[in-house]
Structures are given as structure tokens and as C-alpha cells.
């Protein structure tokens, strides 16, 4: 997808294309609206989650439900505001019943994620959970095997860590995510 303009204008244009997308018939029929992405188009860090849930589908913004509130807390614990990072998902539509995205759905939506990555051109990408990691890095490894080091995507350093929904079910893993955030921010020149 080749679109001209500032980063804001380019993201806005892609978001318009996404709003009309009907590549996944089931998702297009069941969604309230598409959920594109929010945050700073010039952010140093881009976050990738899995797919919108019920709250995101209602509000049109990624990570606003319970998992999103935890993600916001993590961002703030790192000394940033939500508006200072860019947040998006592998899928821009809610899978019914919050099932996992199918490979076909992820492939259909990949062009939009790639456009977000190319436009924001972040120094760092965080894959929250194995669906994001699997899709961005084409790996089958679980997060436990991927975390604790950087992977590469273009010029970006990619960190994989547990999804906030997993942390809600397994609070003991919060300390691992905090280690991952310290690792990321140390590389950015910030001691947490
Ligand atoms: N989980 C995700 O992966 N993304 C959201 O936007 C909300 C919950």
C-alpha cells in the first residue's frame, strides 16, 4: 500500500481503508467497527497485541478493556503515557467470542499491520503475547522461549513478552514482564 503525506495522514488513510475492509467475511459481519491503532505516529516504541475484544470493538480503540487497563499501568510504570507509544493489533476486527485469529485472518490483515510498521518506523516493537510474536516473526516458539532478548524486524528491535490478559490470569508472570520492560528501557538509555 503506497500512500503519500505525513505519518498522521498516511495512518489516517490506511485506517479509512481498514474501516471498509471485508476480506474476512465473518469478522466484517460481526464487528461493531474496526479498531485500527492509537498513539504517537512518531513513537520510538510500537506495541502489537492480538485482536480487539468486546470493549475495543465497542469503543474503536485498542487495549481499553481489563487487559488494556493493565497495559496502561505497565506503560505508566515505565514513565510514559499511552499517547507516547503507538498501539495496534494483529487483527483490526474482533473475532467472535474472542477466539484466536485464524492464520487466514492474520494474513488478510497483515498488509495493514505492515503499513503501520512502515509508517511509524519505530526503533522498538513489543509483541504482547504469542499471537503477535508468531505473526510478526513467523515463529512457533512460545513467549517463554522468545523473551529476554531482542529479535529483528527491519530496523526495529523486537521484544516479545506475555500478553496482559495472560498476566490477569497468571499474576506471577508480572515480574517477568517487568524484567522485559527494564531490558527494553535500558537499551533505550532509561533505567527503570
Ligand atoms: N487484547 C489485545 O490483544 N488487543 C486489544 O486491543 C485488547 C485486548
Q: Any overview of this molecule?
A:
This protein is α/β, with parallel strands linked by helices and 192 residues long. The chain has a single domain (7-187), classed as Uracil-DNA glycosylase-like domain (Uracil-DNA Glycosylase, subunit E), CATH 3.40.470.10. Helices cover 45% and strands 14% of the residues. The chain contains 9 helices and 6 strands. The chain has helices at 7-19, 25-30, 54-59, 66-77, 103-120, 130-137, 143-146, 164-169, 174-187; strands spanning 37-39, 45-49, 86-89, 124-128, 151-153, 156-161. A 6-stranded mixed beta sheet has the order 1-3-2-4-6-5, sandwiched between helices. A hairpin with a 2-residue loop joins strand 5 and strand 6. Helix 1 (7-19) packs antiparallel against helix 5. The longest helix is centred in the middle third of the chain and has 18 residues, at 103-120. It is globular and about 45 Å long. The mean pLDDT is 97. It binds uracil. Uracil binds next to helix 4.
Amino acid at each position: 500500500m503506497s500512500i503519500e503525506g505525513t505519518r498522521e495522514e498516511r495512518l489516517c488513510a490506511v485506517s479509512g481503508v481498514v474501516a471498509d475492509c471485508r476480506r474476512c467475511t465473518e469478522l466484517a459481519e460481526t464487528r461493531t467497527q474496526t479498531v485500527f491503532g492509537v498513539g504517537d505516529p512518531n513513537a520510538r516504541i510500537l506495541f502489537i497485541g492480538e485482536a480487539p475484544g468486546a470493549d475495543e470493538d465497542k469503543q474503536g480503540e485498542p487495549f481499553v478493556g481489563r487487559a488494556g487497563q493493565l497495559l496502561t499501568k505497565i506503560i505508566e510504570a515505565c514513565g510514559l503515557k499511552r499517547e507516547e507509544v503507538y498501539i495496534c493489533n494483529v487483527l483490526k476486527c474482533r473475532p467472535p467470542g474472542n477466539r484466536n485469529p485464524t492464520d487466514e485472518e492474520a494474513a488478510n490483515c497483515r498488509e495493514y499491520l505492515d503499513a503501520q510498521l512502515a509508517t511509524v518506523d519505530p526503533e522498538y516493537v513489543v509483541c504482547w503475547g504469542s499471537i503477535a510474536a508468531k505473526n510478526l516473526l513467523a515463529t512457533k516458539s512460545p513467549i517463554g522461549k522468545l523473551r529476554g532478548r531482542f529479535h529483528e524486524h527491519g530496523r526495529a528491535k523486537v521484544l516479545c513478552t506475555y500478553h496482559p490478559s495472560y498476566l490477569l490470569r497468571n499474576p506471577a508472570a508480572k515480574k517477568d514482564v517487568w524484567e522485559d520492560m527494564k531490558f527494553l528501557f535500558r537499551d533505550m538509555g532509561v533505567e527503570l
